[in-house]
Write a structure and sequence with these properties.
This protein is α+β, with helices and mostly antiparallel strands. It contains eleven helices and seven strands.
Length: about 290
């Protein structure tokens, strides 16, 4: 599948990929009509260094591929993630937060279940938002008991809702993730804040202090002004969610980079999300081959 296209005067630079990873490729302009993001293509070519030089390219026939083999997806079964989420929601003791979460998911469940959590760096695939948010919330739930003074219900609710603005910020069509107009004009944090703020206003008697604590998690979860948060984390719960969210994103980048490794490689190239290369022990290759 064509994931990225970069047009040059005498050739096209492509990124071709399936669920197992991606590879850079180059092809002449004659193939330009077939080279659209999300297009499934059949190519013949040869590697020159780390790049595929394409000799021929055509549109793939439906019988030549399975859609689930082309697109990245979560490491966990969707039904299991849904069950895990229901179990986690059942542990929320605060009645106002339980009512709020019920209202949010009643309004947004289809989108929350299917949306990606990113465009490129981590969980950038269908169901990625559910996988990432659930993992962060489960980790927050487990860790919150280890430190004094943390309101576990607030932290878990904030973890489940911290990225909900991505429902409006990203669009997923044909396996291709792009920023929506709203995402580019407003950003995912403000969009998430307003989505939850509007729902809070529909919940009778929702305590203002509780609303403030929850919304602060959403606003601060990127951790710093230079990373897009309008405020930095100023509470225990916001700090915990930010730290676990950051950890989940960074480890998700390792998953992405490992899928891109060629046979025998142990180091990825320099990666913007990690600020360096990623190293994978030799056993990683043998485990992938055994799978």
């Amino acid at each position: 599948m064509v994931r990225e296209i970069e047009r040059h005067p005498d050739h096209l630079k492509l990124v071709l990929g399936d669920r197992s990873g991606s590879v850079p490729a180059v092809v002449g302009h004659a193939a330009g009509e077939l080279c659209r993001r999300g297009e499934v293509v059949f190519v013949i070519g040869r590697f020159t260094g780390a790049q595929l030089a394409i000799d021929s390219l055509r549109q793939a026939h439906d019988t030549e591929y399975a859609g689930e083999d082309l697109r990245d997806g979560p490491a966990y079964d969707l039904d299991q993630m849904e069950r895990d989420l229901r179990e986690l929601l059942a542990t929320i003791q605060n009645p106002h937060l339980r009512q709020l979460l019920g209202a949010v998911f009643a309004d947004s469940w289809a989108g929350y279940r299917d949306a990606p959590a990113g465009k490129r760096y981590h969980h950038a695939y269908r169901h990625g938002l559910l996988e990432h948010s659930l993992t962060v919330a489960q980790s927050v739930s487990a860790i919150s008991a280890m430190f004094g003074g943390i309101d576990r219900d607030v932290a878990v609710a904030g973890a489940l809702l911290h990225d909900i603005g991505k429902l409006d910020a990203y669009e997923l069509q044909g396996g291709v993730i792009s920023m929506s107009d709203q995402g580019r004009l407003h950003g995912e944090i403000p969009l998430g804040y307003y989505r939850v703020r509007r729902t809070i206003e529909r919940v009778d008697g929702f305590p203002p202090d509780l609303a403030q604590a929850l919304l602060h998690i959403i606003l601060s979860h990127h951790g710093s002004l230079e990373h897009g948060s309008p405020v930095v984390p100023c509470t225990r719960e916001a700090t915990l969610v930010h730290m676990i969210d950051n950890l989940g994103g960074r480890l998700g980048s390792f998953d992405r980079l490992e899928r891109q490794l060629r046979a025998g490689e142990q180091w990825s190239g320099w990666d913007k999300a990690l600020g360096g290369g990623a190293y994978f022990a030799p056993r990683a290759d043998s485990e992938r081959e055994a799978a």
